[in-house]
Amino acid sequence: MRWGDMDAYGHVNNVQVVRMLEEARIAAFGPPRGAGLPGMKPAVSLFDAVPEGVMSLVVEHRIRYVRTLEYRNIPAVARVWIGALKGASFEIHYELVDPTTDALCVRATTQLAFVDEATGRVVRLSQEQKELLAPFHRT
After folding, report:
1. Is the CA virtual torsion 44, 35, 71, 95 positive or negative?
2. For residues 46 and 43, what is the distance between their CA atoms, to the nearest angstrom?
3. Which of 19, 31, 55, 124 could be cross-linked to 35 through a Cys-Cys bond (beta carbons 3.0 to 4.6 Å apart)?
4. What angle do CA 136, 116, 30 make, to 5 degrees?
5. Element (H, E) at 138
6. Lowest mean pLDDT among 25-39, 57-71, 76-90, 118-132
7. pTM for this structure?
8. 39 pLDDT exceeds 70?
9. How far apart are alpha carbons 81 and 121 in whole angstroms?
10. Kindly report the CA angle at 90 between 30 and 67, in degrees rounded to 5?
11. What is the DSSP letter of 39?
12. Alpha-carbon distance 8 to 25, whole Å?
């Protein structure tokens, strides 16, 4: 959490929650191919298996604010796992938890799909990608 994430009510603003979800997704699965310079290896290098010319795009975000996430000068806890694993898309599920009380504050889901940059068509998940995601899949 950053000081600037706080709104006038003293809790993390809902727009900043979406940024936190993105940061959790990047920490777990790495940045999209070609974005930034090399850094720490994520738990699963999902985007390394994406062919050149294929984009990973957010199809949908669903966010449920269970309770306010109060600003603290320590990181919030982000739990991340894979939910629905479909032929051409998959869901990343998140829980954001207050780092001192362990209270659940946010439940969210992001649906991602791979899209061919030249044609704009959805690209099916490869067997390699499915195998990378399998250990993190839960229903």
Report:
1. negative
2. 9
3. 31
4. 35
5. none
6. 25-39
7. 0.87
8. no
9. 26
10. 80
11. -
12. 27
Cβ count near 77 (within 10 Å): 15
Cα Rg for the chain, rounded, in angstroms?
Answer: 16
Residue with tokens 């062919």: 51
Residues counted in the chain? 139
Three-state DSSP at 109 gives strand
pLDDT of residue 115: 94
> What's the average model confidence in pLDDT over 104-127?
94
The structure tokens listed for 65 are 């604010």
**What is the reported pLDDT for 34?**
62
Is residue 35 very low, low, confident or very high in pLDDT (cuts 50, 70, 90)?
Answer: low
SS3 annotation, 43-96: CCCHHHHCCCCEEEEEEEEEEEECCCCECCCCCCEEEEEEEEECCCEEEEEEEE
Phi-psi category of residue 11: left, alpha or beta, with phi > 0 → left and psi -120 to 50 → alpha:
beta
pLDDT of 4 higher than 80: no
